[in-house]
Amino acid sequence: MTRQARLLALTILLAPGLVAQRPADARLAGRVPASLAAAVTALLDSAAALGLPGTPLVDKTLEGVAKGAPAERILVAVRTVFGHLDQAAAVLAETGNASADAVEAGEFAMAAGLSASDIAEIARTADRTHPAVTALQVAGTLRALGVPRAETVALVLATIRSGRPVGELARLPGQVQAAMAGGVPPAAAAAGLERAAAAHLAPQLRRQGQGQGNPHKP
Description:
Layout: H1 3-13, H2 16-19, H3 34-50, H4 55-66, H5 71-95, H6 100-112, H7 116-125, H8 132-144, H9 149-162, H10 166-170, H11 172-181, H12 186-212
Helix pairs in contact: 3-5, 4-5, 5-6, 5-7, 6-8, 7-8, 7-9, 8-9, 9-12, 11-12
């Protein structure tokens, strides 16, 4: 069955007459209206069937309830999260980084405004010392701070490629915030950090080239 067909089947499962028969998730019981709990529980069952993490769905539900949002609006938001999780899982599976934590980080980044192709590019560039989970969390946070999408991706990729420790990657949002506090626009702050990462990489590339020498020279 294609992914589109599976999603169509899952949409059918959300019919009120079906979801009303499903028990509510333990975290939702007593905290969420019964009809909403039933609908979210159906989504949780569907997520489990597809191998998707369910925690973001419950978190979004409880967030909406805490804010006093109408049940209909909460369910729309939860379905959006489900869609992000499904998209993130699909693109991450192609990169070999489809762990539950990576999928959750991918959903977070997509919710912040990154595209599926952005998620895939970051995951492909991630390595053992710069895990996809960390890279995607940082990218999502940068985007949430107001850094444009292109600058966000470029900065994260440049930092990974620079070979700097993962701690430097994790500190990027704080560095952008500090620059913004000084009046620097988010895009400019990110661009400056990207140039610094590229400058750190350049000497390494020169040394590698010197070490290899000229293969055409005797």
